[in-house]
Design brief:
Helix 4 (about 110-120) packs parallel to helix 6. By secondary structure, this protein is α/β, with parallel strands linked by helices. It is about 35% helix and about 20% strand. It has helices at about 20-30, 45-50, 70-75, 110-120, 130-140, 150-155, 195-200, 210-215, 220-230, 245-255; strands at about 15, 35-40, 55-60, 80-85, 100-105, 125-130, 160-165, 170, 180-185. It has two domains: about 15-185, Vaccinia Virus protein VP39 (Rossmann fold, 3-Layer(aba) Sandwich), CATH 3.40.50; about 195-255, rRNA adenine dimethylase, C-terminal domain (Helicase, Ruva Protein, domain 3), CATH 1.10.8. The strands form two sheets. Strands 4-3-2-5-6-9-7 form a seven-stranded mixed beta sheet, sandwiched between helices. It has a two-stranded antiparallel ribbon with strand order 1-8.
């Protein structure tokens, strides 16, 4: 790590340098020479290089232009690597094929980036380093405090699991929390707009019942009560009690008025 580089707190810059861990993350991603991969938050390129070594076609995004001096030499070294300096969330992917997503995500952009990957039907899998608390939310079952909109989105998209735990001491500079690597192998179609709207509304006020959350977000109370009854659900149920599949069924009933 270059001691002259000043890490940006606002960009959530905490870089991994352990070679074995970086190799393990690249392995978790399932990349082969035939793959396309999108990396978000390339940093100084430590993980980027491990990904490029797989032979996959890598598109590495980095918003901090100060890191260009570290990333361009890698781009010159690996013909399968393209470095894109810019904001991933404001960029269109420069290809139309399916791809795998890999990232050591800055904590402040974790949720929007994850939702973009989960909702993109071209994305085949997501392998991300995230705050340990976020990892627990991704894999959380219904009924607990960790279960929420991100849990539903990830579990509808595919099979989510934590592949490894990473202590804060593995980063430079060390963050205030531990992290974990999560792999989501996508198996289903992207959630419909109706399901996404329903899930957002269901968790908009966690202390409220599902009926109150939905009616506060534009759903008709009679329609909601009818749909809940058809699913055999208590009218006082909260959103955190519904499984991902139950959200899909409920959205379909609300759509069709059944």
């Amino acid at each position: 790590m270059n001691s002259g580089f000043r890490h940006s707190h606002s960009l959530g810059q905490n870089f991994l340098t352990d070679g074995n861990l970086l190799s393990a993350i690249a392995s978790d991603s399932g990349l082969t020479a035939d793959s396309i991969a999108v990396e978000v938050g390339a940093g100084m390129g430590a993980l980027t290089e491990k990904l490029a070594e797989t032979g996959a076609r890598i598109y590495a995004y980095e918003i901090d232009t100060r890191l260009e001096e570290y990333l361009r030499p890698l781009e010159n070294k690996y013909p399968n690597l393209t470095v894109i300096l810019g904001d991933f969330m404001k960029s269109e992917l420069p290809f139309g094929r399916s791809y795998r997503a890999v990232a050591n995500l800055p904590y402040y952009i974790t949720t929007p980036v994850l939702f973009r990957f989960l909702e993109d039907e071209r994305c085949r899998s997501v392998t991300v380093m995230v705050q340990a608390e976020v990892a627990e939310r991704i894999i959380a079952p219904p009924g607990g405090k960790d279960y929420g909109a991100l849990s539903v989105a990830a579990q509808l998209a595919g099979k989510a699991r934590i592949t490894r735990r990473v202590g804060r001491h593995m980063f430079t500079p060390p963050p205030n929390v531990d992290s974990a690597v999560v792999h989501i192998e996508k198996t289903g179609e992207a959630a419909s707009d109706g399901v996404k709207r329903l899930v957002r509304a269901a968790f908009s006020m966690r202390r409220k019942t599902l009926v109150n959350c939905l009616t506060a977000n534009g759903y008709g109370k009679a329609e909601v009560l009818s749909a809940l009854a058809a699913e055999g659900l208590d009218p006082a149920v909260r959103g955190e009690r519904l499984s991902p599949d139950a959200f899909v069924r409920l959205a379909e009933r609300l759509k069709n008025g059944v």
